Amino acid sequence: VQLVESGGGSVQSGGSLRLSCVVSGYTLSTYCMGWFRQAPGKEREGVALFNSGGKTAYADSVKGRFAISQDNAKNTLFLQMNSLKPEDTAMYYCAASSNQSCLFPYWGQGTQVTVSS
Is a pLDDT exceeding 90 seen at residue 30? Predict the structure, then answer.
């Protein structure tokens, strides 16, 4: 299983970015998939998830601003991020689960998002 993120960058507060995660060796919608982030000095946190039933869940800090989606034909997971804030600055990772438990053994290498005020 290989996950490759892209789409990160530097934007000003209020801007938007769309992250992509191309997945190989794994079929989207099989189990849970999601986006996580880790800021310097902080623990990794879940940002947006698809559960195995296809329902979405978001961290309170990003509700109404971020949207997770997927293109099954392209085996790609997306994270649309709008109204970005400096506190969204972090390395963003996509991850895939190997079973119904929503544990994530498969991770990408990450893409950096930096939001300036």
Answer: no
Say if CB 5 and CB 108 are below 8 A apart.
Answer: yes
Q: Look at strands 90-96 and 76-81 and give their pairing.
A: unpaired
CA-CA distance, 80 to 66, in Å (whole number)?
Answer: 5
Averaged confidence pLDDT in the chain: 95
Cα dihedral 66, 43, 87, 102 in deg (nearest 10) = 0
One DSSP character per residue, the chain reads -EEEEE--EEEETT--EEEEEEEESS-TTSS-EEEEEE-TTS--EEEEEE-TTS-EEE-GGGTTTEEEEEETTTTEEEEEE-S--GGG-EEEEEEE-SSTT----EE---EEEEEE-
Contact assessment for residue 52 and residue 107, using Cβ atoms and an 8 Å cutoff = no
